[in-house]
Amino acid sequence: MSGRYIVVEGPIAVGKTSLAQRLAEALGARVVLEETEENPFLRKFYENPEKYAFAAQTFFLLSRYRQQLELAQRDLFEQAVVADYFFAKDQIFARLNLDSDEYALYQQIYRMLDARTVRPDLVVYLEARGDVLTRRMRRRDRDYERRIAPAYLERVAEAYRQFFHHYGDSPLLVVQSSDIDFVARPADFDVLLKEIRTVKKGVQHYVPLSSRGTR
Question: Which residues contact 6 (CB under 8 A, 6 or more apart)?
């Protein structure tokens, strides 16, 4: 796994950061985390989405791009890198939250920046049911997320499903994570790590045995 650039993605509260940190520790990799708390418009967005959507989205886009530039300038073969976000996912939230004129302007900026970003060697996409996302979000209890309605979480989750249904730029592992806990149950993480190590190309799905009777 040395030298690989692995991205963990998925909707709000699915467990991206937790898994990225566990993976980095297990693989001896550098971890790159999204700078969510540094966005000064995020809380304002959840209070007034129409007014602050473009500002919040643009801040995230530029923040992620700066991190991507740092990755591009490093010798990735020195050490594996695990990130808890995928630069291309920025488009998912832009489509959901911006009006047509804002989105057209956003797309111009995005296309210029995307050309200079690093493509991951593997994307791990975490799926989870809406009720699970809501429970996990409430459990972590971030003050600015208390305004997020379950309906919005469902919209985000569906947008992710559509995005990754058509994704083919990197090897992809789709993980049904509703019924596993890779933080509290080490065995769950160990099995998932083995799955991650096996992905070489194309799309691979991991559905834990405990999930197969619930879908």
Answer: 23, 27, 29, 80, 81, 82, 83, 120, 121, 122, 123, 124, 196
pLDDT of residue 200: 85
b/e sequence 182-201, b meaning 16+ C-beta within 10 Å? beeeeebbebbbeebeebee
pLDDT confidence of residue 77: 53
Angle at 156 between CA 54 and CA 9, to 5 degrees: 95
How many Å apart are CA 176 and CA 192, to the nearest integer?
11
Q: Which amino acid is it at 213?
A: G
Cα Rg, the chain, nearest whole Å = 17
Residue 104 dihedral angles phi and psi, to the nearest 5°: -65, -45
Burial of 208 per CB tally in 10 Å (0-12, 13-18, 19+): middle
Q: Which domains does the chain have, with CATH numbers?
A: 5-37+76-93+118-211 (3.40.50.300)
Low-confidence stretches of the chain (pLDDT < 50) are 212-215
Parallel/antiparallel/unpaired status of strands 172-176 and 122-127: parallel
Q: Directed axis angle between helix 130-140 and helix 150-165, to 10°?
A: 120
What are the helix and strand counts (H, E) for the chain?
8, 6
The per-residue pLDDT for 74 is: 67
